[in-house]
Task: inverse folding
């Protein structure tokens, strides 16, 4: 058996003379915020080990992150301060005079937190000038933002021209754990759900090559079911998706599809039927995998030594259509407590796993959605360049 994780990672653990340095820490603290309230802080909790490590070396820490939907990073800074039991100074800019002045007043172990990087147009354009100014207040750059490392953005890409770059402890763990999927202890069983086949083609290809079985559910499966010539009623699919699915099933014989499905007339409905996959009516919508499929999928997951799961298997937001996703989630969690190594990733997938209250049983929950797909698909990741070799 090949030994996995042969990669070389330039980790903060390798930094000599770290003591007292000013560190620019790029985190991905892009958490859901509604009306100023943080809905889930798992990404904030995940970077605590890196911050604690840096504090042990009396460093001065400048934290940078992006937040989606034009939200300010202020509530995130506050939550981080609560979790660390430490005062964090929030600066309402990510570059400029206020930042320069705050940095010049920093003492060892101080933490300052800068405003949402994406408020500055230079960030998403990978603008060198912006990266240079961002870098100018620090001596060392640490990337602990695996989840955004697939983006060619200034704070993960261009920034490395201006500072010596290292990985944080979270990024390092992401790589080591995801490498156990890329070089799995066989049998590897992959479970892929979700909606858009286009975003998952490379992942499905890559995992099909490595997996003993690859189990497909969610709206994604509709493309495959249609490619077999079965009706899928009014379910979500597109012509291009069906073509892609047809090619994939022709090439990879280890792809396993639902044998029965839950159908409803509306996604919000409480009325539903279990149907064999070849008996879906014109006006049905497929909303979940059926009980025989759950049993079939579990029979494969039971044999796995390595498990990867990305994407819900049905409309789990609806009370009536959550059973496929939650049953499979529970079983993956259970197997992860035993001999199998289990990895789960993707925002909605983690949300579903959390409903089971068994997320702590799983060996690794990736903080990366798109980034996990990119890494497992072997895509180039600008944020990892020069740090992971
Ligand atoms: C994520 O939530 O997946 C990361 O923070 C990346 O966010 P993005 O897709 O907006 O770049």
Result:
């Amino acid at each position: 058996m090949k030994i996995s994780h042969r990669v070389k990672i330039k980790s903060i653990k390798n930094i000599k003379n770290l003591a007292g340095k000013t560190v620019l820490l790029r985190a991905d603290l892009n958490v859901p915020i509604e009306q100023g309230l943080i809905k889930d802080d798992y990404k904030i909790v995940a970077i605590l080990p890196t911050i604690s490590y840096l504090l042990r070396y009396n460093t001065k820490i400048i934290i940078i992150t992006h937040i989606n939907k034009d939200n300010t990073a202020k509530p995130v800074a506050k939550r981080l301060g609560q979790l660390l039991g430490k005062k964090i100074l929030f600066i309402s800019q990510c570059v400029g005079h206020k930042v320069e002045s705050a940095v010049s007043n920093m003492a060892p172990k101080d933490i300052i937190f800068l405003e949402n990087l994406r408020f500055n147009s230079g960030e998403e354009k990978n603008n060198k000038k912006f990266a240079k100014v961002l870098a100018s207040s620090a001596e060392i750059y640490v990337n602990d933002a695996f989840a955004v490392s697939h983006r060619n953005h200034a704070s993960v890409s261009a920034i490395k021209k201006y500072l010596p770059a290292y990985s944080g402890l979270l990024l390092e763990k992401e790589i080591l754990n995801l490498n156990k999927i890329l070089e799995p202890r066989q049998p590897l069983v992959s479970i892929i759900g979700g909606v858009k086949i286009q975003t998952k083609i490379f992942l499905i290809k890559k995992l099909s090559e490595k997996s003993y079985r690859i189990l497909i559910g969610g709206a994604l499966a509709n493309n495959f079911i249609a490619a077999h010539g079965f009706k899928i009623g009014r379910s979500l699919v597109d012509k291009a998706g069906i073509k892609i699915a047809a090619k994939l099933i022709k090439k990879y014989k280890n792809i396993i599809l639902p044998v029965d499905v839950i159908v409803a007339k509306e996604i919000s409905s409480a009325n539903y039927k279990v149907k064999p996959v070849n008996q879906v009516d014109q006006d049905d919508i497929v909303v979940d995998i059926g009980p025989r499929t759950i049993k079939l999928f579990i029979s494969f997951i039971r044999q796995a030594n390595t498990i990867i799961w990305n994407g819900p298997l049905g409309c789990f937001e609806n009370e009536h259509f959550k059973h496929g996703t939650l049953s499979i989630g529970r079983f993956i969690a259970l197997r992860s407590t035993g001999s199998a190594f289990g990895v789960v990733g993707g925002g909605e997938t983690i949300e579903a796993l959390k409903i089971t209250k068994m997320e702590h049983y799983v060996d690794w929950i990736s903080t990366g959605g798109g980034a996990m797909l990119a890494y497992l698909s072997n895509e180039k990741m600008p944020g990892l360049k020069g740090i992971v070799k």
